[in-house]
């Protein structure tokens, strides 16, 4: 019940600045391209046409009528219902009627069982709602154009962008209805299906994460500890009974939070790695030391056995009724948190054995929130993803025919959901598993071609000659183009917060919800603009 | 055709459909089992052929409607879906997502229910690889059980194939009885660590009769042999004459496990005696196929019988390749028949169990830092062991005998070292010690391992 990734706080301001810069550059490029193309097509009258459309667009946007948008939304909603969209409930019902047969006896371990149930429900909802949203949104406008029903609409006093917005809102409304029903049924199903003994596992832990650093076996400050040869390099290992330590620094800590019934609870899930079997029936020993550097306070806590892959909950005051520093002087918990910071050092006490840890593996556990908090936040993220698919589908339908729009949208969704990590590895050159420190040299296509032909391994850097400088420059250009393509695909993987909910964590605002909301806004605004201008400039008779 | 009206065309299609239905019905009509007052029917051609060649889903084992439905729903995409699931399972194992891995293995077997290697691979993976990833010994045991349960599920779906019965037996016996955690695992097998669920008793899915793990394993090995006899599907794990020995080998394994745990009394001797009887009367008298000779042979042959056979073969001038005596010898060598026959007889004697007990107690005393007691126990044990091996010299060069003798000598030497005494020139078991100098480093490593583990 732990995370396999590092939850990082989203930099909203930084993201917004980048987005604004990209939008400005993109607008300038589109504007100049339009001017040039219009000059070629219409001669000197072209630029004025371009300007007219731009100002017309701005005027249209300023005169948006919520009433007309609402009318278009209602129309779209009714159309979707008429197209028997709600039949998706039948598939959903069948899946849930029989799911218990397959999931109930997969494993008897409560932690694993709960994880399977929650994952199943959230994945099922996600995989059913996205195709529905995709098909509805991609076929709506093209069908209207084909059936000429849009001709009737455009003769009314309704602006083109209101058609786009109305379509988006209508499909989103039907999607929200489906998603709402599915999530309620799914939530009730989890509650009903799980045996009473496992229901206590349904919770939403609220972690406070710190910044992780290490002290090496020799006592030096390092950013990473020992690699024990684990293929998954997400965790670093500290050696037992040496100077090696893992140090978490927590900031913005309010001592008053820990004075109630739930004191300071440290929860960990470290890996255990043995260089020899040792006492098989005894688990590895770990010890925390609470540190306040400003007051020069060090409070070693009682050691405890690590239960690997389980939640190791450590209530500081219950395990240590009296806190004492290294000289035996009594210390109050609030003394250790002066300045709103707390430092926790973890040490392995078992000789020649190792404990593996990553940043999310030790956190301060605040009072839990109800499971519903995490579950419905996860649903909200699925809803945002659905909204993006709707926007993308409607926009592509505004300039493409139904089948092509479906293929285009489906491709972007599939790449964004399943291959975004792969694209990222192509762009950054970080191709090894969970090891951000290893980067291949010359990861671009020209360098790679040279290496294939000359049988040179990727670990060897190119010499500083004119030839290799040229290769590097070409690679740099190619990678920049690839970077631009990579950024066109929204990262749908980041919308999937199932791992939080299934592992009994609350879905955090700054690490998971905010980036999803920001990504949705960042992509939808330009897409809607594209949709509007496509429909505005489109010759409707050209089916 | 164009001159036909719509109604005529429809009637024509209907006629065609009815015409085609006749051969389809004749070919595909399902078989109907005979019941009271109803003779039943053999079904269409396909049903009869399916029955004749045992190709029906129900012939292979229990039918899982979920599995069949999945395969139908996937149309031709089963291969792709399976590959995706295998990749996912490997990724989940790398990422230590055990819940995901377990769920994915279940999905894989829904798509590949009759692919024995899939059951073998994933069952082994759960029992050996996944269990080793966990640090807690109770957790490790849990995953060994998951492997065994997985194999049992495979057996249910593939009842005709002896391999899956054997895998259940092998994992129940070897993984629980021979791993580093064997002592704890064997205890857990009878008293599951999940007390909340099993109330201090065994997990009924892996040990329904609350038996020793080797007794349970022996039962599964026996079922594997019975399956081959019933369905005539030879297994593809090892040579048949070695495979057939496993039910009896499980008895020896149980006796040896008890000895490793310090049980040398009558119970253990009786198990050895039971093993001797089973080895000589069941396995030894079993008809084992010999393709070259064209008739079965059995391995329990007395000296006079063998002489008689040899005389007969000499008289007929048979070449070695076609001699029954030669093949009996080959089979006996490969199955280690004579060794186990002798050993089970010797081990059931009180003298031998006393020797083992003394050596075991010597090791315990040494680990408790009592070298004086250890020395005395070692000397007594080594003397007794040496005497028995003198009576049964054929056991002297066997691996287990050599290892036990060398471990005893090392323990004895260590006791002398602690007591600051010289190692004498002559000592019991010296002939084995001198004869195997190359084995010493490996045995030394085992000796040190046991010392560290405090065994």
Distinctive features:
A: alpha+beta; four-stranded antiparallel beta sheet; 53% helix; B: 455 residues; mainly alpha; 23 helices; 70% helix
Short description:
The complex is a heterodimer of chains A (543) and B (455). Chain A is an alpha+beta fold and 543 residues long.
Give your account of this protein's structure.
The complex is a heterodimer of chains A (543) and B (455). The model of chain A has no long low-confidence stretch (mean pLDDT 85). Chain A is an alpha+beta fold and 543 residues long. Chain A has helices at residues 12-42, 46-62, 66-82, 88-103, 110-146, 149-155, 160-193, 196-199, 316-319, 371-399, 402-418, 420-428, 445-454, 466-488, 498-502, 509-537; strands at residues 204-209, 211-215, 221-222, 236-239, 245-250, 265-268, 271-274, 285-292, 297-300, 304-305, 312-315, 342-348, 353-357, 362-369. In chain A, the strands form three sheets. In chain A, strands 2, 3, 5, 8, 9, 10 and 12 form a seven-stranded antiparallel sheet that branches. A four-stranded antiparallel sheet of chain A has the order 1-14-6-11. Chain B is mainly α and 455 residues long. Chain B is 70% helix and 0% strand. Chain B is built from 23 helices and no strands. In chain B, helix 6 packs antiparallel against helix 7 and helix 15 (266-283) packs antiparallel against helix 18. The radius of gyration of chain B is 30 Å and the shape is globular. The mean pLDDT of chain B is 90.
């Amino acid at each position: 019940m732990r995370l396999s990734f590092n939850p990082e706080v989203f930099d909203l301001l930084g993201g917004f600045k980048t987005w604004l810069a990209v939008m400005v550059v993109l607008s300038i490029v589109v504007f100049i391209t339009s001017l040039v193309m219009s000059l070629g097509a219409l001669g000197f009258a072209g630029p004025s046409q371009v300007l007219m459309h731009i100002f017309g667009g701005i005027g249209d946007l300023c005169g948006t009528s919520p009433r007309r948008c609402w009318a278009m939304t209602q129309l779209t909603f009714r159309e979707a219902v008429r197209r028997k969209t709600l039949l998706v409930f039948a598939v959903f019902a069948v899946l849930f009627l029989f799911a218990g047969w397959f999931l109930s006896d997969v494993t008897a371990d409560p932690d694993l069982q709960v994880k399977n149930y929650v994952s199943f429900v959230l994945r099922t909802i996600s995989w059913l709602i996205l195709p529905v949203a995709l098909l509805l949104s991609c076929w709506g406008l093209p069908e209207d154009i084909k059936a000429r029903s849009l001709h009737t609409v455009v003769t009314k006093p309704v602006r083109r962008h209101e058609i786009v917005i109305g379509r988006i809102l209508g499909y989103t409304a039907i999607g929200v209805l489906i998603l709402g029903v599915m999530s309620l049924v799914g939530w009730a199903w989890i509650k009903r299906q799980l045996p009473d003994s496992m229901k206590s596992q349904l919770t939403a832990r609220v972690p406070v994460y710190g910044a992780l650093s290490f002290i090496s076996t020799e006592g030096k400050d390092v950013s990473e500890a020992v690699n024990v040869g684990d293929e998954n390099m997400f965790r670093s290992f500290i050696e037992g009974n040496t100077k090696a330590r893992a140090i978490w620094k927590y900031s913005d800590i309010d001592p008053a939070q820990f004075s109630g019934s739930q004191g300071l609870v440290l929860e960990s899930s470290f890996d255990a790695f043995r260089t020899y079997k040792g006492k098989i029936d005894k688990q590895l020993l770990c010890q925390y030391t609470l540190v306040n550097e400003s007051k020069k306070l060090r409070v070693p806590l009682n050691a405890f056995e690590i239960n690997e892959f389980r939640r190791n909950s450590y209530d500081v005051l219950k395990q240590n009724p009296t806190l004492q520093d290294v000289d035996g002087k009594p210390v109050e918990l609030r003394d250790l948190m002066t300045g709103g910071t707390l430092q926790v050092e973890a040490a392995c006490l078992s000789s020649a054995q190792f404990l593996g840890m990553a940043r999310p593996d030790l956190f301060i556990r605040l009072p839990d929130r109800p499971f519903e908090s995490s579950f419905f936040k996860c649903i909200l993220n699925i809803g945002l993803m659905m909204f993006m698919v709707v926007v993308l589908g409607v926009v592509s339908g505004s300039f493409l025919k139904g089948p092509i729009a479906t293929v285009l949208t489906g491709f972007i969704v599939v790449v964004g959901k399943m291959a975004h990590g792969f694209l990222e590895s192509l762009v950054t050159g970080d191709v090894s598993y969970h090891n951000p420190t290893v980067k291949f040299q010359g990861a671009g296509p020209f360098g790679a071609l040279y290496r294939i032909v000359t049988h040179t391994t990727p670990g060897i850097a190119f010499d500083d000659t004119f030839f290799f400088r040229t290769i590097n420059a070409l690679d740099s250009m190619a990678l920049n183009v690839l970077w631009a393509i990579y950024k066109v695909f929204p990262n749908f993987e980041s919308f999937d917060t199932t791992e939080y909910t299934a592992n009994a964590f609350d879905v955090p605002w700054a690490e998971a919800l905010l980036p999803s909301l920001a990504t949705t806004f960042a992509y939808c605004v330009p897409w809607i603009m594209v949709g509007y201008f496509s429909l505005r400039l489109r010759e409707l008779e050209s089916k | 055709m164009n001159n036909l009206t719509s109604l005529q065309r429809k009637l024509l299609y209907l006629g065609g459909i009815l015409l085609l239905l006749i051969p389809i019905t004749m070919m595909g009509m399902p078989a109907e089992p005979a019941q009271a007052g109803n003779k039943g029917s053999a079904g269409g051609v396909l049903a009869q052929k399916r029955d004749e060649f045992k190709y029906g889903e129900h012939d292979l084992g229990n039918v899982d409607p979920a599995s069949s439905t999945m395969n139908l729903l996937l149309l031709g995409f089963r291969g792709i879906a399976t590959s995706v699931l295998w990749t996912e399972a490997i990724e989940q194992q790398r990422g230590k997502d055990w819940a995901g891995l377990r769920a994915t293995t279940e999905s894989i077997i829904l798509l590949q229910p009759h692919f024995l290697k899939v059951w073998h691979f994933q069952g082994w993976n759960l029992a050996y690889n996944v269990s080793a990833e966990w640090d807690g010994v109770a957790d490790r045991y849990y995953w060994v059980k998951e492997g065994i349960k997985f194999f049992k599920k495979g057996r249910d779906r593939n009842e005709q194939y002896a391999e899956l019965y054997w895998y259940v037996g092998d994992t129940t016996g070897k993984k629980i009885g021979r791993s580093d955690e064997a002592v704890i695992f064997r205890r857990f097998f009878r008293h599951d660590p999940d007390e909340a669920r099993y109330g201090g008793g065994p997990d009924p899915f892996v040990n329904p009769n609350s038996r020793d793990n080797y007794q349970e394993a022996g039962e599964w090995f026996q079922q594997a042999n019975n399956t081959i006899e019933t369905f005539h599907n030879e297994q593809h794990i090892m040579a048949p004459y070695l495979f057939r020995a496993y039910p009896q080998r499980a008895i020896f394994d149980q006796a040896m496990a008890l000895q490793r745990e310090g049980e040398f009394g009558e119970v253990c001797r009786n198990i050895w005696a039971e093993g001797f009887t089973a080895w000589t009367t069941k396995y030894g008298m079993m008809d084992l196929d010999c393709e070259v000779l064209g008739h079965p042979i059995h391995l329990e042959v007395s000296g006079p019988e063998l002489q008689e056979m040899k005389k007969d073969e000499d008289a007929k001038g048979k070449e070695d390749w076609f001699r029954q005596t030669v093949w009996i010898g080959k089979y006996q060598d490969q199955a280690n028949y004579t060794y186990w026959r002798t050993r089970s007889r010797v081990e059931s004697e009180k003298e031998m169990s006393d020797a083992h007990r003394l050596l075991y107690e010597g090791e315990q005393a040494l680990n408790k830092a009592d070298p004086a007691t250890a020395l005395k126990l070692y000397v007594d044990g080594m003397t007794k062991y040496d005497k028995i091996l003198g009576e049964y010299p054929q056991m002297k060069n066997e691996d287990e005998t050599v290892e036990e003798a060398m471990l005893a000598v090392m323990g004895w030497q260590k006791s002398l070292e602690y007591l600051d005494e010289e190692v004498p020139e002559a000592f019991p078991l010296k002939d084995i010690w001198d004869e195997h100098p190359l084995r010493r480093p490996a045995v030394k490593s085992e000796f040190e391992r046991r010392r560290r583990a405090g065994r």
